[in-house]
Amino acid sequence: MGKKRNLYLQTIPVEEAREKYLSAVSRIIDVKFETIDVIDSLDRVTAKAVYARYSSPLFNASAMDGIAVKAADTSEATETNPVILSEDQYVVVDTGDPIHPPCDAVIMAEDIVETDEGVRINASAHSWQHIRPIGEDIVSGEMILPSSHKIRPIDIGVLLSAGILKIDVVKKPEVAIFPTGTEIIEPDAEIEDGSIIESNSRMFENMVTVAGGIGHRFPPIIDDYEQIRDQVSAAVDTHDMVIVNAGSSAGTEDFTVHVLRELGEVLVHGVAVKPGKPVILAIVRGKPVIGLPGYPVSAYIGFENFVTPIIQMMAKRTEKLTETVEAHISKRLVSSLKHKEYVRVKVGKVGDKFVAAPLARGAGAAMSLVRADGFCVIDQSSEGVEAGEKVNIDLYRSRNEIENTVVIIGSHDLILDVIADIMPNKYRNMFVSSTHVGSMGGLMALRRGEAHMAPIHLLDEATGEYNVSYIKKMFKEPMALIKGVHRIQGIMVKKGNPLGIKGIADLAASGGSIRYVNRQRGAGTRVLFDYRLKKENIDPSSITGYDREMATHMAVAAAVASDGADAGMGVLSAAKAMELDFIEVGPEEYDFAIPAEYLQLPHIKAFIEILQSEEFRGRIEELGGYSAENAGKIIMI
Fold first, then answer.
1. How does strand 341-350 pair with strand 353-358?
2. Could you report the per-residue pLDDT of 498-557, keeping only the tens digit for each?
3. What span, in angstroms and rounded, lies between the C-alpha atoms of 246 and 184?
4. CB-hemisphere CA count at 13 Å for 144?
5. Which of 33, 76, 232, 599 is least surrounded by CB atoms within 10 angstroms?
């Protein structure tokens, strides 16, 4: 080929060039997946959502060293009237030991006194005192990690605890790297007049690794059009991306742009950056091919601006820097002066402020590390912080991700996991964060400005309608209700329904032999259950376990499945996930309360679009027990 000088017809801003190229590449890249051992998965990116095979704990476990007892045997114990328990009334347990029926409580070792007759206790124990119920940390069937999640050390521990040994991950993109130039030599070659030691490609190899790919560096190619064309063309067929270094400028022996125009399409040649103007952004047979300038600084700047984003897109990962933000804590945290405490928190930006919602504080709650967005550090000299107080949060996630996260506080449902999994894959850099405190707790958080929306399912006993009346009573500002799903509530019982439970009345008519597990006060399920009790003139005190509370439908289901309870109120999807039988009580409406001003936020619009999407409808159909004919409809209040 004859010598020909490259002329830049125009140079465009870096941001415009990058967005143009990313947009083009996003339409043609083929993200690949592979299955690897969990123990080898550090820093890899999940290909799809991962669900627990086992619960953790696997059994009802003692949370303390002490003795396991029947709470009823201790009911009369007081300081002035201690009770002596004989050897057949207790079992000595250490922390983590299984607790078997008829024992239903643990008394700490420091609260008992050994005597010749047995052990003396000076206070009664309540049912499930100091017992970690099965599934307290992880519930079989719940989502542990969403798709497109970069796996951290804590994630590996939780995956193994949940029985996951193999995991599907995004395959690292294979990147071919070609240094070009007649004058360049290998670092170990003999230097002659005019020689330049080639080093850029080795820098590129390591930058590819850092970005999440695998770099393959080829030997230097002399300034020969046919050799460059043939080797680049071959590499396109065997690699996911190709980088050509040098030969991208306006010299008569800068062949790269001509080669790429022959092989494919050049989208950009020249960007408005100094140094680093002669960048070539091309697509060849459905693969990104990038020409970078030869000067090291120019090459580095070009790589960071254009190669790194493409590799991260192909590897479905983004790098996250440790940042600290000032946030308002959503609830009071009491701490001991004896310790410096690290409280795991979910973080979101609501309005013009960051809000931090504390997660489980127990040392055994590994999932709280997986769910956390950061740490709130309470100094040893502090007794804690009050609700609404400003605190510093060390973030796990970038500030940008936090600011583009839909903050949801309220009632629990499995569809929140579905939406959280769809969001970052359908909408780049948008996320969902949910904290489960019950419907009323969610509305209170919304009123305090701590969330964008609250999922609720609150029955108005007077009208038989759901949700709207509660919003009208609690809020003066313009509000909206985003319609969610109709779902079926009922009583979850063991497979085969061995106790023959037919309805709520049977829970009280059993004479206390049926063990029930309840939802927390303020939960919509609890409101519905109490409404049904009232309607049937049933005294809650006649139901064994009415005061035993769980925070989610899956936790209730796990308690029933593990023989920690005989029955519990919940949704059909949770019963199906735990392979339980289900006695239908009735349908209900699970919706999202939201201040009207938030409806125009981009991530809220994305949330609504997901509710309206066929993908969402298909996913919840697999779960069972839902209908979504009005999902995403907005009712102004």
1. antiparallel
2. 999 999 999 988 777 899 999 988 888 998 899 899 989 999 999 999 999 988 888 899
3. 10
4. 32
5. 76
420-450 b/e with 16+ CB inside 10 Å = b?
bbbbbeebeebbbbbbbbbbbbbbbbbbbbb
Query: CA triplet 90, 96, 99: central angle to 5 degrees?
Result: 40
Chain position carrying tokens 């000595």: 92
Q: What is the length of the chain?
A: 637
Q: Which two tokens stand for residue 121?
A: 């206790």
SS3 of 509-547: HCCCCCCEEEECCCCHHHHHHHHHHHHCCCCHHHCCCCC
- Please choose, from the candidates 360, 417, 359, 198, the residue with its C-alpha nearest in 3D space to the C-alpha of residue 294: 198
Q: Is 339 helix (H, G, I), strand (E, B) or coil?
A: coil
Let me know: does 549 contact 496? Beta carbons within 8 Å: no
CA distances from 168 to 34, 36, 37, 45, 422 (A): 6, 7, 9, 9, 17
The average confidence (pLDDT) of the chain is 88
Query: Which residues neighbour 540 within 8 Å (Cβ) at sequence distance 6 or greater?
Result: 530, 533, 546
- Find, among 604, 562, 591, the residue nearest to 427 by Cα: 604
Residue 149 token pair: 């999640």
Strand residues in 95-159 grouped as ranges (E): 105-108, 112-114, 119-121, 131-132, 143-145
Residue with token string 């240094």: 179
What are the backbone angles phi and psi of residue 433, rounded to the nearest 5°? -125, 125
Contact 578, 495 (CB under 8 A): no
Which residue carries 């420091």 as its tokens?
110
Identify the helix (H) or strand (E) that includes residue 254: none
Quickly list H helices, 339-438. 366-371, 399-403, 415-426
Instruction: At 611, give phi and psi (nearest 5°).
Output: -55, -35
Buried b (16+ CB within 10 A) or exposed e, 200-232: bbeebbebbeebbbbbbbbebbebebeebbebb
pLDDT digits (tens, 9 = 90+) for 190-224: 777 666 778 888 889 999 999 999 999 999 999 88
- Of 155, 150, 188, nearest to 46 by C-alpha is 150
The Cα-based distances of 132 to 139, 185, 520 in angstroms read 13, 66, 17
List the beta bridge partners of residue 201.
none
Residue 474 tokens read as 């609690």
Instruction: Give dist(CA 422, CA 148) in Å, integer.
Output: 10
